[in-house]
Amino acid sequence: MAAPTTFHFFFFFIFLVATTTAKVPANRTFKYVNEGEFGPYITEYDASYRAMPLFGSPFQLAWYNTTPGKFYVGLRMGTTRSESLFRWVWDANRGKPVGEKAMLIFSEDGNLILKEKNGKVVWSTGTANKGVVGIKLLPVGNIVLYDKKGVFVWQSFDHPTDTLMVRQSLTKNGPTKLVSRASPKDNSDGIYSFVLGSNGMNLFVSPVQGMVTVGALPPPPLLYSDDRFTVTQTPSNITFTNEPGFSFNDVPEFYELQLTPDTGGNFIVAQVKYNATLSILRLEISGNLVAYTYYDPVATDAWERTFTYFSDDDGVLPGCALPSKCGDLGVCQESMCVACPTEKGLVGWNATCVPPAPCTIGSGVEYYKVVGVEQFIPKFNVGVRMSLKKCAKKCSGECDCVGFFYWTESSRCWSAPVLGSLTSVSNSSHVAYIKK
Ligand SMILES: *[C@@H]1O[C@H](CO)[C@@H](O)[C@H](O)[C@H]1NC(C)=O
Ligand SMILES: *[C@@H]1O[C@H](CO)[C@@H](O)[C@H](O)[C@H]1NC(C)=O
Ligand SMILES: *[C@@H]1O[C@H](CO)[C@@H](O)[C@H](O)[C@H]1NC(C)=O
Ligand SMILES: *[C@@H]1O[C@H](CO)[C@@H](O)[C@H](O)[C@H]1NC(C)=O
Ligand SMILES: *[C@@H]1O[C@H](CO)[C@@H](O)[C@H](O)[C@H]1NC(C)=O
């Protein structure tokens, strides 16, 4: 019995030596401290920033903040040469800001750690003693920790926030989605997501995050996109790509931004007249899905918006179909918020137009009607056949129901945890009922 034990121990020992000897050379380790002057350029969200040395043009790692004393380690895209807006395309510590004098440390054990000044660990890649020998910021916008064979032990591409870079993928086993940023000031998770599911890519809104009543399940996310990016064959992954179009004298006539499922086929996102490698696909704070392409040979504004999901000009769906178009509530026509539904009828719209306070429940709840409107809930989500009376009763019993939609011609009912933009239509059998 002794021999095999020794034998195993011997191999275990070899294994230990092999992994512990793969270390980051001292001259590749670093400790960046969040201190000093702020940079001079204009960046997204009006953020202040301090650039760090990790760089792969046009990407650079930086500390940035939109609120004093609340910093994020983010990836900035853009070059100083073009003097265009710098965009924040990735955050390490999303929703978990750090303070002044926080430290980003890449140590000999191969771990990349973000610590507060007092030593509290806020974020890390979790790659200690996993054979990491170096770190690089690839010029595609990917931060990689690699082993001695050059294999990526960790990459920021596997941890997207609200933005996909060209060549970045969403996969069935994760990461499965982009999640919008909460607001310009707050980079924690917002309520919108762009998710890889069994039928491809869909947009969802999770309406009442943070206001769920005790014991109640949050309402399921609601679909607000059509079938533009859906397929019949379940993909394992989808990659954002830039493909040259047909060539004339070896020069491509155009480039095509695509979402490419591994199961074949592709979705055209945009056609661009120049090399669109430096493009991003972004799920914006508003819930709109857009592509921006960066082309820095141009003198002034290097960013071009090359795709917009919700837009009257060239969108997949009209501007009014964006749930947040009119804030919390409003009647929308041709991308304009034209009216605010109230108990007394329609009045002029402004940002003070809001639905009733949440959790108005009980048998005494009353509703007012908005006749001839549509919205994403009845358009893209399955309704239940029932009588108008039952539909109202259902909503009256639900804390997170602020109103409901009822289509008389098919007797279908949808409870609405969110109202947002209502599109006016000529069909008077499509009615919204809003709690008084
Ligand atoms: C880092 O140190 C190694 C030897 O450990 C040396 O070969 C390499 O050139 C050094 N790199 C830099 C950038 O100084
Ligand atoms: C996508 O899936 C295919 C097939 O399963 C696989 O070969 C490929 O490596 C995957 N790509 C990514 C980026 O995950
Ligand atoms: C497009 O630009 C990228 C990055 O600059 C480059 O690697 C690629 O070769 C270019 N593609 C073509 C077809 O010129
Ligand atoms: C907003 O609209 C309402 C209803 O039309 C009106 O009473 C209110 O004065 C408006 N508020 C502002 C700030 O314009
Ligand atoms: C309203 O739309 C439904 C289909 O959604 C249709 O069956 C019905 O005839 C329409 N009514 C009018 C008045 O256009």
From TrEMBL:
PROSITE patterns (UniProt xref): BULB_LECTIN (PS50927)
Stored SMART domains: B_lectin
Biological process annotations from GO: response to other organism
Pfam families: B_lectin (PF01453)
Signal peptide as annotated in the record: 1-22
InterPro entries: Bulb-type_lectin_dom, Bulb-type_lectin_dom_sf, SLSG/EP1
Superkingdom of the organism of origin: Eukaryota
Keywords of the record: Kinase, Lectin, Receptor, Signal, Transferase
Domain Bulb-type lectin: 39-158
GO molecular function, one term: carbohydrate binding
PANTHER family assigned to the protein according to its UniProt record, in alphabetical order: BULB-TYPE LECTIN DOMAIN-CONTAINING PROTEIN, CURCULIN-LIKE (MANNOSE-BINDING) LECTIN FAMILY PROTEIN-RELATED
Protein name listed in UniProt: G-type lectin S-receptor-like serine/threonine-protein kinase
